[in-house]
Amino acid sequence: MLQVRNLHVSIDGQKILRGIDLDVQPGTVHAVMGPNGSGKSTLASVLAGRDGYEIEEGSVTFNGQDLLDMDPEIRAREGVFLAFQYPVEVPGVTTMYFMREAINAVRKHRGQAELSAGEFLKLAREKINPLGMEADMLKRAINEGFSGGEKKRSEIFQMAMLEPKLAVLDETDSGLDIDALKIVADGVNSLRGADRSFVVITHYQRLLNYIVPDYVHVLSDGRIELSGDKNLALQLESRGYGWINDEVVPQAAAGV
Amino acid sequence: MPAIADRTDVYLERFNDALARFADEPTWLLERRKRAMERFLQLGVPSLKHEEYKYTDLSALADGQLLFATQLAGAEAALPSYAAGSSSDRATGAGPQVLGRIPRGARVQSLAEALRSQPDLVQRHLATIADCEDHALSAVNTAFFSDAVVITAERGAVLDEPIQLVFGDGPTGRLPRVLIVAGRNSAVQVVETYAGSGTYWRDAVTEIYAGQNARVDHYRAQVESLDAYHTGRLQASQERDSYVGSFSISFGAAVARNDIGTRLNGSGCECSLDGLYAVRGDQSVDHHTSIDHAMPHCNSHQLYKGVLDDRAKGVFNGKIFVRPDAQKTDAVQSNKNLLLSDESEVNTKPQLEIDANDVRCTHGATIGQLDSEAAFYLQSRGIGAGRARNLLTYAFAADALERIKFAPLREHFEALLLNRFASQES
Q1: Which residues pair with B209 in a beta bridge?
Q2: Which of A37, B114, B131, B228 would staple B109 via disulfide (CB 3.0–4.6 Å)?
Q3: 3-state helix vs strand vs coil in chain A, percent to 5
Q4: Tell me, what's the pLDDT at B111?
């Protein structure tokens, strides 16, 4: 589904990613962990098409197409979804209006009929209730005055509405209390399926108790230094990130 | 300067011709016209050297050609949807189209009719509320307007839907004159729409008298031809406990200048002077507002929002006078601008003159650009770049638009903002 090959990215001349390789098969959940500043959020931003990143080398292919060549809205319509680390407040536009525009843009792209107001509302109610939010939220301006937890749940709601093929969750767990974390994780787990993949970016192992990954990758200084299964996350939890730099990187450098 | 004097000669000639047409008018009105002409000849059309006009170039109006020598195209200007409904051709002389049901207790008359049926009221208010002493452009209108619309609401009358006046390409549409008199405890809503085609100058003046505890909601929608000059004046005079709300929409005209003011002559008055301007290309739009707090315990609110694209220019100048007696005044002013291009510009200036000590006056002005992170957020959900821009532009204007209580008017301009960059939709 997603192939990242030797991806080098810089911001304002400063190298952030130094050769990322990542293969995501349909139906799998990949966790990307790493210390602050390792390049996790840059990877998420580049996949979603945020401005300001210089692709110096490498390629990203999504279902056989060159992802980096697409505008952000085309990526979204093709099935890429980014749950923002810091969801943006947009006063003046209701979540309802926003999501209806979005879902119909996606449906149009897929050759499906647009949803009527009634159909949209029915779908929105189905998707919002399991997240512990009221349909009233739809009438509020996008993220305006939302608590941190509400913003993150709103991201999961949007993801559920748009039914992406690849969802990238950028530190969706940061700042959540345990109850909100469970709600978010349940939301993600209910969307897991054979043809939907997730890249879950997180600083903390805690989230992975609830969203159990198939693969765990450790990002350090712009490279994936280590990959493994869910046990790697547990190891990181007990040992911290320090040992990666102390042990794994020198070994790799020495060709061990 | 002789050059200027020569140029106003045309006005004087035309005025002498016009006097014959005004022969049937009462003496007091003729005197007011003559005084206005006299004053105009002294003032002339304001140049860029005039402090109050330094950003808005009206030099093309100086010789009167655009007023006297051009014809309105005559082709029916495309009217906004809310104003294009079935017109009931009411007896307002050669005046504008009047839309809307005229409820019991209200009258919409031509000047001639009003002079017959309520001469004292007309004499008391017409050309006394919008003074010409410092307003050359109002002086031109007072000297030359050929008909007026007189809207009166008698004591206690409540109009629950607006009276719409549509000034299009009609023959007398160049110098629209409106007088609105809201009697004690009455409530009136008026929508004025200005739309035309071709190159011309329209100079409009509306006067509002709000009696004790009366409520007037006034909307002016300016969607003139993009080759036109539009100069407009709205001046209100408020009695005790009255409310006047003004909303000025300015989307059209090559050059638009609006002077909007109210005098709060009794205690307990309230006013809202709000507006939304959206211009592009080489358009320029200039709003000067003035609120005169003469008496204590009055509140005023102002929210003006502007959207400027391409090389468009915007001006906002908000004057608030708080006179020595006007203790406990609460005045709030805000002007916010969104620049969609590098070459657009805005000059915004609050001007507060406060002569009382127990008052609250706040003002703020902002000039900003579209939030690129918000645009990316919308795009990341599948919304096209052009559409995202439209949505954010609309969102910027939303709190101003909300103040338009007449839904068809609000919806029309909401849709205009939402479809502004239709060509970029993908």
Answers
A1: B181, B237
A2: B114
A3: 45, 30, 30
A4: 94
